[in-house]
Amino acid sequence: MSIKKIAKEQPETFEFFEENKLLAKNEIKKYPKGRQASAVISLLYLVQKQNNNWIPLAALKYVAKLLDIPYTQVYEVSTFYSMFNLSPVGKYFVQVCTTSPCMIRGSKKITDICKKHISKKQNELSLNKLCSWVEVECLGACINAPMMQINQDYFEDLDETKTEEIVKKLLDDKMPETALTIKRKNGMLEKIKTNLVEIENA
Ligand code: FES
Predict the structure, then answer these.
(1) pLDDT digits (tens, 9 = 90+) for 45-68
(2) Is the CB of 139 under 6 A from ligand 1?
(3) Strand 148-150 versus strand 92-97 pairing type
(4) Taking the model in full, what pTM does it have?
(5) Residue 147 CB less than 6 A away from ligand 1
């Protein structure tokens, strides 16, 4: 389960860079008058992009003011979606799916490796501050379970050896190449095709 951690150390203020002010304005313009609250996710995404992949409380207030909506409404959205981080994350942010299909296929082994090499608890930076990890709900790649997401990339069909290799590379400040770790194409069966065999490329 994804646990939201609010950073203890918070900047007192937040303001968009000029270019993001323009982007925010354009996002807000996409919605009819009185419906500007609909831009909240886009604006939170912009905040996170500007602020090293996490959102301080001051930014929630800033967004609420820009959209003229209550602070609690922005807070609710930011705590609901696991894509928003409310405390600093590593340069390499590892999200391990632990929903049922991944759990059945061994996600516990993946989180154990994260605990061993990155940090004992989720949402904490590794000793060299490069990496952090968190458990998340289904990331939509169940057919290639177990899997994890690192920054924007998916790593699927994981086992202990492969996961350990990947995590060690991250801690070495290297982004591993993404690939399915067993020989199959996309969501193809692991061993042999049992249907549609007569259709080429099926
Ligand atoms: S259950 Fe893990 S990706 Fe869906």
Answers:
(1) 999 999 999 999 999 999 999 999
(2) yes
(3) antiparallel
(4) 0.81
(5) yes
